[in-house]
C-alpha cells in the first residue's frame, strides 16, 4: 500500500509539474482592447489545451514599473509582457527579449512596415504589434467651411494658425485649437517632440549632446505657446489626451492634433456631440515632413528569462494574427477591432465602412519612420521619444519646464535653459560624454 501511495503521490506531483510548465503568465495594460483579448483567449485555450493562461492586468504606469523591474532583474514573473515601441528596441538590444519567430501562415509581410520596423533591432522582431497608432489632425469641417477654408490633406503649421484664428470663438465656447500641455514624456512631450522634429530640431546630436537651446526648439516652443495663448482653451497646461477628448466631444475644440485612436471616439455619436462634423488630415509640417507625426504600438514581447518560450510564441502570434482580428470583428463588429497593425485590416471594405478615419490613420502610420525622424542626423531610434533608458527622466523634466512656459510661470528661454541643463546632467551621469 505504501508503495502504491508513494507512486500515486509521485505521479500526482509529476502531473502537477507538467501542468505548471504550461501556465503562461501574461502582464497587460487595462485598456479596452486588452480586456477584450482576455475574454476571447478562451478560444486560444480551446485550440491549445496544453496551455493555460494567467492574466495580470495593471494600470499603464504600474505595468511599466512592474515589467521593467522584472525584466531588468531577470525575475521571471511573466512569460508574456505588454510593452511598447520605447522599450522594445532598448530591451531587444540588451538581450532581454526573445526574438519573435511566428509560425508559417502568420503573414509577417502583412504587418505595417512602420510597426514592424519600430519593434525590430537589426531586422529581428522583438515584440509583435497588438494595437498601433500615429498622430493626425482632427478638425471641425463645419467650422472650416463656414470660415471659407479648405484644409489640405497635408497642411502646414502656418495653415493651422490661420484656421485657428478664423474659427476661434470663445464667446460661443469654441476654441480654435486644443493641444496637449500636461507635463510628461508621454503627455505634452509626445506632441512637442513631433513639433520640434518638423521645425527641424532633434533631442540629441550625433555626439549625444542635448539640443534643447537650439533655434528649432526655440522656434517650435515659441510658436506653440503663442498658438495656445491666442487660440487655445484656458488652462491648456493641465490638458492631455483625456481632457482634450472631453472638450472635443462637447464641441469646444475647432481642431486637435493627437493620437489617431481619438478618431474612433470623436466620430462615435454615443460619445461625441460633433460626431458627424469631424474630418481628418495629416499632422502639420513646417521645415520638414520628417517626424511630424508620432508612432506607437502596444505590443506583446517575451522575456528572455521565460522557460516557456514555445508556448509564449504560440500565444503572441495568435493574439496579433489576422485570425484574431477577424474573431474580434465577428464577436463585436469591425468598428471594435484593434487598428494600426495590418495592411489587410485597412484593405477590408467592412472596416473602411465602420471607420471613416481609416485612410488618414493608415497614411499617418505609413509615413512615420522611427529610424529617420529628424532633419539633422540623430543617433537614436524613435519619433516622439529617444529609445534610450535615460529618456524617461529627461522627458519628464523637460515636460515640466514646457508646461510652466505654457502657463506663463517661466519664460521660454529660461524653460529651455533648465531643460538643457537637466538633459546634460542625465547624459553625463550615464556616461555618454564627460
UniProtKB/TrEMBL annotation:
CDD domains: PBP2_TMBP_like. It is found in: Periplasm. The keyword Signal applies. Its main location: periplasm. Residues 1-20 form the signal peptide. It holds the Pfam family SBP_bac_1. Keywords: Signal. InterPro entries: Bact_solute-bd_prot1, SBP. GO terms for cellular component: periplasmic space. Belongs to the bacterial solute-binding protein 1 family. This is Sorbitol-binding protein /mannitol-binding protein.
Amino acid at each position: 500500500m505504501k508503495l502504491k501511495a508513494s507512486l500515486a503521490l509521485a505521479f500526482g506531483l509529476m502531473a502537477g509539474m507538467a501542468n505548471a510548465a504550461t501556465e503562461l503568465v501574461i502582464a497587460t495594460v487595462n485598456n479596452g482592447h486588452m480586456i477584450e483579448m482576455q475574454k476571447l483567449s478562451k478560444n486560444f485555450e480551446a485550440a491549445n489545451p496544453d496551455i493555460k493562461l494567467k492574466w495580470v492586468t495593471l494600470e499603464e504606469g504600474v505595468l511599466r514599473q512592474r515589467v521593467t523591474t522584472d525584466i531588468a532583474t531577470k525575475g521571471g514573473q511573466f512569460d508574456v509582457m505588454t510593452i511598447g515601441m520605447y522599450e522594445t528596441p532598448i530591451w531587444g538590444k540588451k538581450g532581454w527579449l526573445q526574438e519573435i519567430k511566428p509560425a508559417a501562415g502568420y503573414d509577417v509581410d502583412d504587418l505595417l512596415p512602420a510597426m514592424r520596423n519600430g519593434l525590430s533591432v537589426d531586422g529581428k522582431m522583438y515584440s509583435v504589434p497588438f494595437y498601433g497608432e500615429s498622430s493626425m489632425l482632427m478638425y471641425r469641417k463645419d467650422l472650416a467651411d463656414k470660415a471659407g477654408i479648405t484644409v489640405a490633406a497635408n497642411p502646414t503649421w502656418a495653415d493651422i494658425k490661420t484656421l485657428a484664428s478664423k474659427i476661434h470663438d470663445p464667446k460661443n465656447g469654441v476654441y480654435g485649437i486644443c493641444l496637449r500641455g500636461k507635463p510628461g514624456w508621454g503627455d505634452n512631450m509626445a506632441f512637442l517632440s513631433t513639433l520640434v522634429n518638423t521645425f527641424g530640431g532633434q533631442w540629441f546630436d550625433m555626439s549625444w549632446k542635448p539640443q534643447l537651446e537650439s533655434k528649432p526648439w526655440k522656434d517650435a516652443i515659441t510658436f506653440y505657446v503663442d498658438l495656445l495663448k491666442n487660440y487655445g482653451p484656458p488652462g491648456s497646461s493641465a490638458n492631455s489626451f483625456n481632457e482634450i477628448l472631453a472638450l472635443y466631444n462637447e464641441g469646444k475644440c475647432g481642431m486637435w492634433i493627437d493620437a489617431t485612436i481619438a478618431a474612433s471616439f470623436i466620430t462615435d455619436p454615443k460619445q461625441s456631440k460633433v460626431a458627424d462634423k469631424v474630418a481628418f488630415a495629416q499632422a502639420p509640417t513646417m521645415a520638414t515632413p520628417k517626424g511630424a507625426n508620432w508612432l506607437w504600438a502596444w505590443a506583446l514581447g517575451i522575456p528572455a528569462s521565460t522557460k516557456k518560450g514555445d508556448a509564449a510564441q504560440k500565444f503572441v502570434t495568435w493574439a496579433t494574427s489576422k485570425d484574431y482580428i477577424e474573431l474580434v470583428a465577428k464577436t463585436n463588429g469591425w468598428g471594435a477591432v484593434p487598428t494600426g497593425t495590418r495592411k489587410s485590416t485597412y484593405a477590408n471594405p467592412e472596416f473602411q465602412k465602420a471607420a471613416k478615419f481609416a485612410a488618414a490613420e493608415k497614411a499617418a502610420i505609413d509615413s512615420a519612420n522611427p529610424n529617420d525622424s529628424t532633419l539633422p542626423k540623430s543617433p537614436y531610434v524613435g519619433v516622439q521619444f529617444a529609445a534610450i533608458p535615460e529618456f524617461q527622466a529627461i522627458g519628464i523634466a523637460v515636460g515640466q519646464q514646457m508646461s510652466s512656459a505654457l502657463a506663463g510661470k517661466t519664460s521660454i528661454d529660461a524653460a529651455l535653459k533648465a531643460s538643457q541643463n537637466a538633459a546634460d546632467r542625465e547624459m553625463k551621469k550615464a556616461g555618454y560624454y564627460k
